[in-house]
Specification:
heterodimer, A: 163 residues, alpha+beta, Ubiquitin-like (UB roll), DNA polymerase, domain 1, 5 helices, B: 706 residues, Aldehyde Oxidoreductase, domain 3, Aldehyde Oxidoreductase, domain 4, 3 domains, disordered N terminus
Amino acid sequence: MSVHTAIQFAMADITLRINGSNRKVSVSPETPLLWVLRDTLQLTGTKFGCGAGLCGACTVHLDGAAVRSCSIPVAQTGGKNITTIEGLAANGLHALQQAWIAEQVPQCGYCQTGQIMAAAALLAKTPQPSDEQITQTMSGNLCRCGTYDRIRRAIHRAAGGAR
Amino acid sequence: MSPLSRREFVTMGVAAGAGLVIGFYLPHGSSSAGSGAFSPNAYLKIDADGRITVVVARSEMGQGVRTSLPMILAEELEADWKQIAIEQAGASTLYGDQTTGGSASVRTTWDPMRKAGAAAREMLISAAALKWGVPRASCTAENSYVIHAASNRRLGYGELANQASALPVPTDPPLKQAKDYRIVGKSLPRLDTPFKVEGTAEFGIDFRLPGMKCAVLARCPVIGGRAASFDDKESRKISGVGYVGKIGDSAIAVVADSVWGALEGRRVLNVQWDEGPNKDLNSTAILDGLKKSATGKSATLYSTGDVSKASGRRMQASYQLPFMAHAAMEPGNCTADFRGSSCELWAPTQVPQDVRDSVAQATGLAPDQVKVNVTLMGGGFGRRLEHDYGVEAALVAKAANVPVKVIWTREDDMRNSTYRPASYHLLSATLDGAGWPVAFSHRIVSPSISAQKGQPGDGGVDPDLKDEAALIYSFPSASLEYVDTTTPVPLGWMRSVYALQVGFASESFIDELAAAAGKNPLDYRLHLLAKDEDIKYFDSAWHTARMRGALQLAAEKAGWGEPLAAGHYQGIACFGCFNSYMAEVVEISMENDQPRVHRVVAVIDCGQVVNPNILEQQIQGGVIFALTNALRGQITIDKGRVVQGNFDDYAPIRMNEAPVVEAYFVPSTEAPTGAGEPPVPPLAPALCNAIFAATKKRIRALPILA
């Protein structure tokens, strides 16, 4: 029998700034942000796919940058602005969400919130991305339904340009 | 039109708990009509405000049934599509077999959904005619209104719902002609898209009950092993861990307040595994075993002429495919609330009725004490045809005496799954002086999924081989033989099931024959399909004309035979499964000895297209799924353990490797056939045939990038 030993973390009160509001949580500090969002705050639009930063289903923004919430301890996010799919648009739908509907991107839909968050961080930095820039950014996000063609079209549409 | 029992009809309305209801009991298929064994397979509710609710009795896993099935009903109902809402059916006794699989949702509900809509339309027309005191024939239905043109009067369906519900339900209502369709055949936006981009769509893993706990299970890493003993002292030190206990013979559940707590509790759980009889199992030996079995006893799937008497140039080749994993994006999960004499589940499942029955059996309840609600699914691909998630959740909830959501991690899913069986294929052919095959034979060696699950088919033939292993060409002599083997590796149905293996082997071999004959691979195939013929294969007939039509359209759209960009090469393949015909042309270049796929032209003939937007999704998705299978889809086993664990070593196609996929449909008003799986089988052979065109190197084993 291999022997494992528990390292005990004390629960900590952490104030998170999520989607423009302060949310106080009491969790063990090494908990990945993903599980605090999903289990503690019930923001379930952020998905669990691999738990290892490989698939991008858990993508959120940390001070505007796309990050994998499954691989970031919650303690490292205090004081930073966290944006999830639920807070992507101040009101109504973000241009990408509208484009995703217009291009009918989702099939099962499970990875799509992560895809949209990755694309939103790209557009914020690069409003008119090239095909190559889209490929480079979006290749971090897996889709088993194979929606890549439509994701590319939707990003171009949201960017306001024909490709 | 014979009215159905009023009593049954009223019962249905009351059961639904709605005021104004039109419900239907329709015979399940024409064969049961008059047998007295009625089972409803459609249900429709029209509220006084005109809202129309269609119950979807199949599971939504991305393939669009929550849109396409209501479209079929709405077409015949002459409904205003904007008024349609859907309700997801859980496990029920009212809808026949609710299994979502075998590319069957549209093809098996096409008739019942049309009849349900048409029957309601006829009742609404009758209700309006009675109300107005005018001849029924002078009234028409359109856009959720019944119209009496002569007097310029109209009544909305909502206004008529109450009167209509008092009328007998016609069992054989007239159905519309395809030329009059105004919903079916349109690329209507999917009803589920907005929720999926807002993040509000609730998948199984998102479901939450008040007071619910989260659980993960430690499972024996060796296939078929057991948990001998465990020590949970360290686990219980983790904050929030409430229960640790054995579930069945081979797993230990760790239940906590949160998923992370459960994961941490499991991480420090100390388990002594009894590795059991498979601790030396490895996949290389399994594949060798398949090869050794190739000449063993076989069952005949198809035979015509006499392949042994053919004379000419003899060709032979063998092909091999590995185990593969579904790897749906949403890992396995299920929520269960066990209450002593009842159990309710919220399950992302393709088989709610099987989950109900398995949970009943595992917990000692009766099936009617188990309620299964069907959630949205983050992909299925056949993995959610298994009942394991549901049974685990129920057993953990029962043991821990608390509502529980069981979650699998990615590694749990990769290593404790059911896998597409590995297979070996021995093909031979005899060519005449001109290079045309006068005899063709294919021996399929694969463990049987159904047999492993205790349901061997008639004559030792896995029933799935009957839907999927079509011989699509006309040969003077041909034989298709199946050699069953056994393996301890858990097997499951994965998108296109055996058609992937059979299609890869046979369409690669046809390409070899064309090359040996010095003929263009397209012309070679068209020659073998030239004569209009129905090739009878078990209960289906494969029409050479339809396969030829798909192949010709693919070649035309792909510009087969026309000049390509420098360094680009094309490969072609076609195959049939689930009663549909599929042809694909793959265009590649070689970079560092590896294929780069630039473009895939994919053509399907699946009869009447219900929603071209959704069908295009299915084709694009099927092709990308198949490309992962072809390039890297491989599960290996070493020391009884599945080697791969996450998306680094089982690496699906990403955008940087994804080709442009162009989908085309052969126009047809034939009844719809399968769409979700047929796009998968031709991709690997078309790709390998393109690699041959580029390199003269023949790939006879998948994955290509092994």
